[in-house]
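Why should sequence recovery work at all? Because a backbone constrains its sequence more than one might expect. Tight turns favour small or flexible residues, buried strands favour hydrophobic ones, and helices have their own preferences. The token representation captures these environments compactly. In the example below, the structure is given first.
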């Protein structure tokens, strides 16, 4: 599909219902996938807790959180259903063992950008880019957010290691950094960019999706889901119709709070782990994330709701 043929498809409840998979009553937890979240650091464990909490509500059979050893108590208390895998550093510094066991990996929430974390992140991408030594990792879904995106922006050579079929979840400032790093463009202003998602900014989003063969989600009012051209028509016409861009129809201004993005990353990672393909997971994730925010606003109000309230209101129908 040529970019001049772009059509905007609105994500509605009927689309979501058609995408949802049934749950085999006779299956055990392993049949529903295993998601790994690499998140958190000293002083930033809330990001890991929120992401893991959302992943646990995705329908995924197992969720493991790779977190600093010294910060393990908060995760075990806040999310006892999550498996805890420990890193000896104060942040992500060691590539988890047995990556081939996971059906999805989400990385970036609250991990920082230290030299040790950068080295570990580069090594992680190298493994997930399908080296011959670990062929089973080729099917592992990757979700990138926050500090993972910022490290790619400041070290653009890492972009070549991002596996095709990944999902990127930047807000507009992270998107600005990506464009600056990947295209050496310093004057592209993404502040205030919002639906109907047009102009030169959109050209860069489309280019990133195409360059990385990955879905780009731009978080904001009526969150944008941008698949690469190879994936744009992958959904059946009866579900969402053919198109290149998908605009979410749920969510509210009360979600403009710290931690909301961590919730989305955890939810999408869980959905990828559950077995949804990248575009399905992105569409389902943004809709249910926004719907949970709308439900939270009804209880707490837009001013008083926070990211924990969004996690508490995630309910996949």
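From this structural description, the recovered sequence reads:
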């Amino acid at each position: 599909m040529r970019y001049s043929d772009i059509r905007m498809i609105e994500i509605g409840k009927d689309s979501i219902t058609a995408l949802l998979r049934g749950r085999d009553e006779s299956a055990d937890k392993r049949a529903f996938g295993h998601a790994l979240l690499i998140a958190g650091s000293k002083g930033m464990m809330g990001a890991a807790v929120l992401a893991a909490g959302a992943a646990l509500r995705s329908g995924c059979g197992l969720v493991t959180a790779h977190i600093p050893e010294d910060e393990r108590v908060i995760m075990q208390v806040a999310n006892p259903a999550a498996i805890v895998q420990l890193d000896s550093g104060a942040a992500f510094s060691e590539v988890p063992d047995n990556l081939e066991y996971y059906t999805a990996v989400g990385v970036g929430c609250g991990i920082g950008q230290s030299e040790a974390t950068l080295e570990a992140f580069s090594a992680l991408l190298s493994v997930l880019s399908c080296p011959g030594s670990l062929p089973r990792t080729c099917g592992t879904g990757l979700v990138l957010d926050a500090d993972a995106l910022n490290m790619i922006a400041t070290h653009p050579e890492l972009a070549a290691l991002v596996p095709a079929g990944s999902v990127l979840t930047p807000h507009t400032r992270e998107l600005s950094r990506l464009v600056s790093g990947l295209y050496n463009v310093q004057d592209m202003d993404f502040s205030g960019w919002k639906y109907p998602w047009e102009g030169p900014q959109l050209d860069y989003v489309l280019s990133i999706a195409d360059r990385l063969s990955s879905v780009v989600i731009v978080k904001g009012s009526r969150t944008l889901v941008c698949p690469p051209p190879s994936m744009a028509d992958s959904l059946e016409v009866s579900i969402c119709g053919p198109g290149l861009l998908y605009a979410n129809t749920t969510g509210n201004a009360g979600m403009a709070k710290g931690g909301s993005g961590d919730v989305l990353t955890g939810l999408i990672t869980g959905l990828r782990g559950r077995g949804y393909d990248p575009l399905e997971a992105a569409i389902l994730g943004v809709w249910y994330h926004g719907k949970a925010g709308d439900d939270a606003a009804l209880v707490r109000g837009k001013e008083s709701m926070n990211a924990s309230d969004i996690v508490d209101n995630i309910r996949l129908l």
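A few observations help interpret the result. Strands lie at 8-11, 34-38, 62-68, 83-87, 104-107, 141-144, 167-168, 215-218, 224-226, 245-248.
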